[in-house]
Design goal:
mainly alpha, MetI-like fold, MetI-like, 12 helices, membrane, transmembrane helix
Length: 273
């Protein structure tokens, strides 16, 4: 019964993708016209490129900053430094805030309007403004930064848990052998964290492929379509243009992208074992 509960919506999306169904019409027919339209549309391939840049830039940066913060917190706890709990709570605040609110917050921070906080200080110092959100060259980078700010907390949690599983005896033995902090990091921490890092990469990638609420609130996919990722395009196609069939095609493509990532991870785990 539980399998049917999860399987039925997936089957329905596949079925709708083989139709020309619209939300404002009751009559529809079966065929592959929706696939032909989506795959032959140049905008689709441009959107896919934007999505890939957004996802993998976000993933690597979240992993990088998450690892740095998790390592600093873990090292602080090993040395009994005060304030590590406060740092964890501050970082976690970004994760618990809904994506739409994060989009609004970063819009307030980066906007060129009078309420834009960052541009206020830039204009004060340099008598100019930077088009963080209205420039097609900068908007995607702004969206990536906002997403990394939010997602770094998730990476920190996963990696912090992995760090706590590493035996203290390994570090003590390395210290006796005269290993430096960097030696211990690259020869003990990173190898021991390898499975956790890979799990983190997969989870971030899948989650980021499905991110659209933060982008919708921050840029709406603009300027033009320079920040419109595939998940946001699904929303716009179905609820903006009422094209359920074409939106389902995009959902099927996104499903197979996520499935491929999952299978890649599974094969990696099997090979490691």
């Amino acid at each position: 019964m539980l399998i049917l509960f999860y399987l039925f919506p997936i089957v329905e999306v596949f079925r709708y993708s083989l139709t020309d169904i619209r939300l404002d019409k009751e009559i529809y027919s079966y065929g592959i016209s929706a696939y032909q339209y989506v795959l032959s549309n140049p905008n689709f391939w441009e959107m896919l490129k934007i999505t890939i840049i957004f996802v993998f830039a976000s993933m690597f940066l979240q992993l990088f900053f998450g690892l740095i913060i998790a390592t600093l917190i873990d090292e602080g706890e090993r040395r009994n430094l005060k304030g590590t709990l406060v740092v964890r709570l501050i970082v976690l605040m970004a994760w618990v805030i809904p994506g739409v609110i994060i989009g609004v917050i970063w819009n307030l921070f980066l906007s060129e309007a009078n309420y834009g906080i960052l541009n206020y200080f830039i204009q004060l110092l340099f008598n100019t403004k930077i088009s963080f959100l209205s420039s097609q060259d900068l908007a995607l980078y702004s969206v990536i930064i906002a997403n990394v700010w939010r997602g770094t907390a998730f990476s920190m949690i996963i990696l912090y848990g992995g760090l706590k599983q590493i035996s203290e005896e390994l570090y003590e033995a390395a210290s006796i052998d005269g290993a430096s902090t960097l030696d211990k990091f690259f020869k003990i921490t990173i190898p021991q964290l390898k499975p956790v890092i890979f799990i983190n990469m997969v989870l971030i990638t899948i989650y980021t492929f499905n991110t659209f609420d933060m982008i919708m609130a921050l840029t709406g996919g603009g300027p033009g379509r320079s920040t419109e990722v595939i998940s946001l395009n699904i929303y716009n196609t179905v609820f903006g243009h009422l094209e359920l069939g074409r939106g389902s095609v995009l959902a099927v493509i996104l499903f197979f992208i996520n499935l491929s990532i999952t299978l890649f991870y599974y094969n990696f785990v099997i090979s490691e074992e």
